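agent> step 3/5: call structure_predict on target 'Pimeloyl-ACP methyl ester carboxylesterase' (Paraburkholderia fungorum).
agent> reason: downstream docking stage needs a structural representation; sequence fetched in step 2, passing through unchanged.
tool.input:
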Amino acid sequence: MINHIRSKDGTSIGYSRTGAGPALVLVHGTTVDRHRWRPVLAAFERHFTVFALDRRGRGDSGDSAEYAIEKEFDDVAALVDATGESAVSVVAHSFGAVAALEAATRTSSVDKLVLYEPPFRLGEPDPETERIVETLRAHIDDQNNEAALATFFSQVLRLPEAEISRLRVLPNWSSRVEIAATIAREMGALQTYRPSATALEKVAVPVLLLLGSASPPKYIEASDYLLSILKTSSRVVLEGQGHGAIDADSALFGREVLSFLLADKR
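tool.output (status=ok):
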């Protein structure tokens, strides 16, 4: 069953509610919707009431005429508050990890955070990324979402053509194509987004930073930064993994997440 809440700007945000136990909010990344958690959902449902949202612009969520990354932060905070619980765990991946981190500065109900490779930059905007964003926008303007999605996989995630071909035949390819128009705006927003050390230093809840041992330097740099800023954070390196451990080794990912979330509940 799909439920809905109203975010701060009035946008309808859809989410599923499954399982039983303390509240756990799941926040997915780019090119996917709430179904991206399917590989680990059953494991989480055994211990938690799981709230998996569709980020705005996809699935069962609405959108706004004007996009701003801050609206994504408000969406996550709104769902955390809508659980009705005062101690909510949040697990988030990639772009969703940025939204979850910032949401923790907007609500006092976040109890624990698991952030898997938030992709923010620390320096100046990257010219190569700007070029890719413009290419993505051109594909989207031409209503060629499939080309935009393939560009993201090949030029941003650096997936080999054989892997992209494998993804094309998966059942969720069509849904990814459908929401590919959101890729350019999210990448563009991350080009100028910079985390505020002053704001993040106020995040006093336990934070687990997950990092793949085979992940690119940009994820390592962001993880190093958060480890230095968030005084209650710790890091686990997922050996042999990159940015996609939720799919590549769901057992490893689920085990590390649950070990952290359940540490004081056993």
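agent> step 4/5: record observation. The mean pLDDT is 96.
agent> proceeding.
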